[in-house]
Specification:
With 419 residues, this protein is mainly beta. 0% of the residues lie in helices and 36% in strands. It has strands at 23-26, 32-36, 47-50, 61-65, 69-73, 79-83, 86-91, 97-99, 114-116, 160-167, 177-185, 196-202, 211-216, 222-224, 240-242, 267-275, 283-293, 305-313, 316-323, 329-331, 340-342, 359-364, 369-374, 377-383, 388-394, 400-402, 417-418. The strands form 5 sheets. Strands 3-4-5-6-7-8-9 form a 7-stranded mixed beta sheet, with no helix packed on it.
Length: 419
């Protein structure tokens, strides 16, 4: 049956063509619009246009929707979604979704199910939550030991729960890892109980993989450096731990402050605090270590400073110990007048050997001088090649012995001098 240039055809329930033939639909000028080929009446199209559809693409099979939108299947079995005449997202034959352009490729850990790639700052993703509550958007990463979709098989200690990896082009590929933030099971997990540690890792110059630099344990302790591998220290770690291995003089911890005040005595401190009542969180200042200016620090050449130590008494903090820029040590005073200055109502230095009140004060062994307090006698000694030799002794009875360790019998004689 051939119908030529009708304005409309209505009331046709079916059109039957001879077996093996097709049904062709042409424009008035004879141009083919569509050819339907199917013995049973099922239609097969290389492309379908919906609406005003002026979309053009090189895909063998496509659906063109409106002005510039399309869904196309390519010879490599990939499916492309396009807008404004350009491809925007592709699902390749492996099921990987590439958004923005290009094809799926290995980037810091292999090709992933979702890839975002572009030429501008828009090559990223954002999450925005609009809700009348205190909650914001989030990223969820989860892990199970199951082998099927939907599994909840329990994980084990030291399993990785998830990571954020950073990498870049190195002239060969973009597979090299520069840094990583990773969550790892930090104990034995159970129902609604997953102890986890968080690690921060960076790759050193010349290295091929990142190294752990900082760890926050499941107990809330912060470790900087590889202290967790030092088994002899594991039982001594505190809330904040710093470890670094070096074969030469090295700065382990640097604290720096920029201060605009040039007044002498301005301090920057490491502050300590203690709580005396856990139920009320009554935490008060308990002591400090401070560094301060010994001059006005005007100009590049003046950098004199002192080190101070303070403690708290009856909720009042005060300095107890100071080392000046000149190396003088003051106990009870901030202005020591000699290498060691003790300032108090009754300054005393006492040696105590396991509670027996025996001890010694050594001034300078190179000068062979030694002062001691031993068995209630005051003894002055000099140092020979291998030992201390008593030279002068003041006994508990007031006797002065020079060159002797015990006094001769002198009953009734006070203030005895024996040479």
């Amino acid at each position: 049956m051939t119908v030529v240039q009708p304005n409309s055809i209505a009331g046709i329930n079916s059109i039957t063509v001879q077996s093996g033939n097709s049904l062709s639909i042409h424009k008035s000028d004879g141009t083919l619009i569509r050819e339907i080929v199917a013995a049973t009446g099922v239609s097969t199209f290389s492309s379908v246009s919906v609406g005003s559809a002026t979309t053009t693409n090189n895909a063998g099979k496509s659906i063109n929707i409106g002005l510039g939108a399309s869904i196309a299947q390519h010879t490599d079995n990939s499916l492309t979604f396009g807008t404004n005449g350009d491809p925007r997202a592709t699902i390749d034959a492996s099921g990987n979704l590439v958004h923005g352009g290009g094809s799926s490729r290995s980037a810091v850990g292999g090709a992933q199910l979702v890839q975002v790639e572009g030429l501008t700052a828009a090559a990223g993703f954002s999450a925005v939550r609009n809700s009348n509550d205190a909650h914001g958007p989030y990223i969820s990463l989860a892990k199970s030991r199951g082998t099927a979709l939907g599994a909840v098989t329990v994980i084990q200690a030291n399993d990785d729960l998830g990571a954020i990896r950073f990498g870049g082009g190195d002239g060969t590929d973009i597979a090299s890892e520069g840094a990583r933030i990773e969550a790892t099971v930090d104990g034995t997990p159970g129902s609604n109980d997953i102890p986890t540690r968080l690690t921060f890792q960076t790759t050193a110059d010349g290295a091929a993989a990142p190294t752990e630099r900082l760890r926050i344990t499941s107990a809330g302790k912060v470790n900087i450096g590889d202290i967790h591998s030092q088994t002899t220290l594991n039982s001594h770690v505190g809330a904040l731990n710093l470890y670094q291995s070096s074969s030469s003089t090295h700065t382990g911890l640097l604290l720096a402050w920029e201060h605009s005040n040039t007044t002498t005595g301005i301090e920057e401190r490491i502050q300590f605090a203690l709580g005396d009542d856990a139920s009320s969180d009554n935490i008060q200042k308990a002591g400090y270590v401070g560094v301060g200016k010994d001059d006005t620090w005007q100009g590049n050449g003046q950098r004199s400073s002192y080190l101070s130590f303070g403690t708290s008494s009856a909720a009042t903090e005060s300095e107890k110990f100071r080392i000046t820029s000149g190396g003088k040590v003051g106990i009870g005073t901030s202005v020591p007048e000699s290498l060691l200055t003790l300032y108090a109502a009754n300054p005393t230095i006492r040696g105590n050997d396991n509670g027996t009140l025996t001890g010694a004060i050594e001034f300078d062994t190179t000068q062979n001088t030694f002062y001691g307090y031993n068995s209630a006698d005051i003894v002055f000694s000099t140092h020979s090649a291998t030992s201390y030799d008593p030279r002068l002794r003041i006994t508990t009875g007031g006797d002065v012995l020079i060159g002797h360790s015990s006094a001769l019998s002198h009953s009734g004689i006070g203030g005895f001098l024996q040479i």
